[in-house]
Amino acid sequence: MISRFIFAVVLAFPGCISAARGSDTDSSCYRVFEDRDGNGRQSPGERGLAGIRVSDGVELATTDTRGHFQLSPVPGRTLFVIKPAGFEAPRRTDELPGFRAHGPRATQQAPRDDNQSGKADACPRFGLRRAPRRVQPLDVLVFADPQPKSLQDVDYFDRDIVQPLLRSVSPKRPAADLGLSLGDIVNDDLSLLPAVAHVTAQLHTPWLYVAGNHDMDLGATRDEDALQSFRHQFGPDTFAWEEHAANFVVLDDVVYLPGQRPSYIGGLRDDQFTFLERYLRTADPRRLLVIAVHIPLFPDGGQTFRVADRLRLFALLKPFPKVLVLSGHGHVQRHVFHDASTGLTGAPL
User: Fold this and answer.
1) Angle of helix 270-282 versus helix 307-317 axis, rounded to 10
2) What one-character-per-residue DSSP string does 45-105 give?
3) Whole-angstrom Cα distance, residue 331 to residue 343?
4) Are 280 and 316 in contact (CB under 8 A)?
């Protein structure tokens, strides 16, 4: 079970909760291994892990008995491990989970969305450490819409939100078991993304980031290129992450509409639906499923989220009786229970 979701009021803007029912490159060296010494590299004697799922945001593969997996690299996609419960992902130098890597054929035109050098990894290998057996519930910190406009605002975020949380725990201890930021990490000034990540990293907590409408490259001419800066800093915009108490799916649900007014709408891409369908086939429906997005799924003063996409998503979620949707965007805090009025089939929640 999850003991608590702690919702921090970030610059006076809290979150929103809703509940709902090709290439020829040789990939034989792709591997997931048990990183026993925690150095992020496969050392002698560290064996591959079987049964670990790896994805590029569309395709899904599972490692064999030696930890190998086969995925044809596709320019613009980032490989990532779906971290299973009972394991920990290594931390990068900026404390972000190191569960992703560039594909070998990534091009300069494709988003540079993983390793800190920005270079493609010719032979991705992912290390996972076995986590201590958990008996206590899961503590999750949830931020939404910090949206700083300047370094001074980032300092307010540090002093008013992060430092009080740090004072509530022992030095160098994680503030929680997991953290989520539900978008609008900055207010259009993408140069502030590293500063916000640096401040948040002080919490020593594995942190997952959702993209918001104020985190887009506004000079992009199409939706596919609108999150290049975000991906370079935080990694893929769509992925799954599993803990002992719940499975988490992070989704970019901001569809950029350059040249239109408004310039975006809530919705999901076809490739995200493909990933969701493939991942949910492998997920245990008895466990809590947490969907983390920026724009709420429910109507909010008009069609803020595309109706067809919501119905398509709810159809995929139908086999899961325990679903929690976490969203930001509205700068208000509320609970919404989906039912037939928003397209949810089956018993309302």
Assistant:
1) 10
2) T--B-TT-EEESSS-EEE--TTSB------TT-EEEE-BPTTEEPPB-TTS-B--EEE-TT
3) 24
4) yes
Return the sign of the alpha-carbon dihedral for residues 73, 55, 197, 199. Answer: negative
- Token output for 17: 């909760």
**Burial track 320-342 (b if 16+ CB lie within 10 A, e otherwise):** beebbbbbbbbeeeeebebeeeb
Torsion of CA 83, 305, 230, 243, to 10 degrees: -20
Tell me the two tokens of residue 22: 């090709």
Chain centroid to Cα 308, Å, comes to 23
Provide the whole-model pTM: 0.87
The per-residue pLDDT for range 37-80, each reduced to its tens digit, is: 777 778 888 899 999 999 999 999 999 999 999 888 788 888 89
pLDDT of 118 over the 70 cut: no
Q: What is the DSSP letter of 175?
A: S
For the stretch 269-324, pLDDT in tens is 999 999 999 999 999 999 999 999 999 998 776 668 999 999 999 999 999 999 99
Rounded to whole angstroms, how far apart are CA atoms 57 and 239? 7
Other CB atoms within a 10 A radius of the CB of residue 281 amount to 10
